[in-house]
Amino acid sequence: MTTDKVLMKGNEAFAEAAIRGGARLYFGYPITPQSEVPEYMSRELPKVGGCFIQAESELGAINMAYGAGAAGGSVFISSSSPGIALMQEGMSFLCSAEVPLLAMNVSRGGPGIGGIQPGQADYYQVTRGGGNGDYRIPVFAPSSIQEAVDLLYEGTELAQTWRNPIMVFTDGMVGQMMEPVRLPDYKPVLKPQEIAAKRNWACTGYADRGGDEQRRVVKSLRMQPEKLEEHVEKLFAKYARAEKELARWESESLKGAEVVFVSFGTTARICREAMEILAAQGIRAGLIRPISLWPFPNRAFDEIDFGATKAVISAELSMGQMITDVQLALNGRLPVFLAHRTGGMVPTSPEVAERAKAVLEGLK
Amino acid sequence: MKPIFEYTKGMTDMPTHYCPGCTHGIAHRLIMEVLDEMGELGNTIGVAPIGCSVMAHQYMNVDMCEAAHGRAPAVASGIRRVHPDKMVFTYQGDGDLASIGTAEIVHAAVRGEKFTAFFINNGIYGMTGGQMAPTTLIGQKSTTSQDGRSRELNGMPVKMSEMLASIDGAAYVERVALDSPAHVRQAKKAIRRAFEIQQKGLGFTLIEFLSTCPTNWGMTPVKALDWVRNNVMEYYPLGVIKEPKEGEEA
User: How are the residues of chain B apportioned to helix, strand and coil, as percentages rounded to the nearest 5?
Assistant: First the structure.
């Protein structure tokens, strides 16, 4: 049964949502600002017959996740920016071997060890992939704890359906704040003896599958270039479907907007307040909030009121990374500007509103 | 008529890619023969490494999962959590286990992970063409120690088995060789004991095989076996390094 509204800290709500969505294995390493997730998992997973391991490193964690996923388990992992960087080797393997995984990045400022305040400068890392080779990972960016809960609840099933890692990309602000949320009901999970039949690619031992002609190998090595090319093309046929089916966004007040913000996560909330400030001064502003960062919701940009809109502003907690995708989506139809803070600094709504006014002024 | 000897069902019917005189083939076959004799082939999940045995999954006729370089112990830990009743093993070379994967193997032993690691120690990186390994002997030539390994520059060869045996979570560690029929028979006994200890849930188990690489050592297969007997065994003595306390195995 879905719960009534409860007040929860982001990270704890994320962990609970992953469990309710069917994740039963968690491998993690402490890192701020997401350490409440492994803490919560270590306490709560054993109560539902799940398993938690505190790994020796993020490298260990992602490879445990790969092994458990290859064995047909439903796995959730989380980390923050530098920890996600360490996991990229594994992400590439998981994508090639088509091993499902639900992953979350509660991101912070960088580069390097950076800081522990919220950041979105992992946009390239999560949307372009920091690992080697041709692969893609669907990435979803919630802007509230409830939205994160809903995405994480859906995530295990999505990962199994697409046989690929699915990433939820949030930031330290959403992870550390408290908001009222409704937690959805527990999804049914597979018993170990059901895994071999339901996940017909997973390593489970062939005894219960009618002998060694049913032997299964989970791998990414293909020594013959023709075979590797064929495999990558098969993966990209899947990614092409994902581009059609997984693009998600929300648009607000695009009709008649002089300026349109493009923003995700925490920053989208600030843009909404900036829109109110601008409205009070007689300036109409709209918002495109990408929920999926890959696939990027290019179609959202066709809904812009091109007769009224003079500028598009990509608002980000980075030196401007998503702006590249905004420019590609607009393909020269409108000028694109940046509103940003970085390093863990978060702009205020009056700051963003001022930036929009300056942009419009500059275009006169 | 009843056959008195058959090739194990644990090996697929395909020729291996290993060089003449390489002992990977013997190690593969021994492990698979033991699983066959124990009736566990269908209940086993193996993890293949990066290195010469990266394609072990083509030959070992059980469910297999490939791992990134050095990460096999983490992968096996994950597999074991999903299937706690299955037999799980990793098969890793010395570059994989003793260099890039030291954190993973050490912490698998620390957690007392109930899988068996088969550690192929031939003192060299075979797949990439004969570079120095952490296990290369002092004075031994390789493509990255062309005048022979120096203690001053590279330190002493690492003794992984002794190091891992010092960890409480390790239940059984034995070093074996594959240079003679007697040693091959002993190796097989050690493999069986490791799997039985795994089944009893007593902790982490590891068998180190002193192996050969005639190609990259620049030796004939016969000379390579002599090198193992005369040089390698002196630094890496054979035998049980750690075993369960009396009565625990019963």
Answer: 40, 20, 40
Pairing of strands B44-48, B124-125: unpaired
Provide the ipTM: 0.96
For residue B120, give the nearest of B194, B197, B24 by alpha carbon: B24
Measure the CA–CA gap between A229 and A231, rounded to whole angstroms: 5
Distance CA A16, CA A12 (A): 6
Instruction: Identify whether the C-beta of residue B170 lies closer than 8 Å to the C-beta of residue B242.
Output: yes
Q: Are the C-beta atoms of B98 and B46 separated by less than 8 Å?
A: no
Q: Which chain A residues are closer than 8 Å to B106 by Cβ?
A: 56
pLDDT mean over A80-87 = 97
- What does pTM read for this prediction? 0.97
A298 Cβ under 8 Å from any chain B Cβ: no
Q: pLDDT tens across A25-64, in order?
A: 999 999 999 999 999 999 999 999 999 999 999 999 999 9
Q: Please say whether the beta carbons of B90 and B67 come within 8 A.
A: yes
Mean pLDDT, chain B, whole residue set: 97
Distance of CA A129 to the CA centre of its chain: 12
Instruction: Tell me how crowded residue A255 is: count the other CB atoms within 10 A of its CB.
Output: 12
Q: How many whole angstroms separate alpha carbon A9 and alpha carbon B203?
A: 38
B67 CB neighbours in chain A (<8 A) are 63, 66-67
Shortest alpha-carbon distance between residue B16 and chain A (Å):
15
> What share of residues in chain A are helix, strand, coil (percent, to 5)?
45, 20, 35
Q: Flag whether pLDDT at A213 surpasses 80.
A: no
